[in-house]
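Entry 14. Structure prediction run on the chain below.
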Amino acid sequence: MPDFTIETTYHLPVFRHRTYEADTLDAACRAAIEDDSWDIAEKDFNSSGLVHITGIWDGAHAAYFRRSRSLRNSTNLSSAGPIISRSCSGC
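Output returned:
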C-alpha cells in the first residue's frame, strides 16, 4: 500500500484590543492598521477556520523533498469529504 504525505492547514485568527487617540474614527482605524506592535496579541481558537488540504506528496515524509501533486488533479480527493472540511474545534 503506498504512502502519502498530506499537509493540512487551518487559519487561526489573532487579535488585539488597543485604544487609539485620534480625531476621527477613520484616523483611529488607520492607526490600528499601521500599528506593527503585536505584543498583546491573543489567539482566538474558538474562531479558527476549517481544516483544508494544502499539500500532497507521494511517499512517506516527502513534504518539500519531492514534487507536490496538484490538488486539482489528485484522484479521489473529493471523496475525502470530511477530512477536507473538518472543523478545528480546540486546535
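The mean pLDDT is 81.
Filed with the rest of this week's runs.
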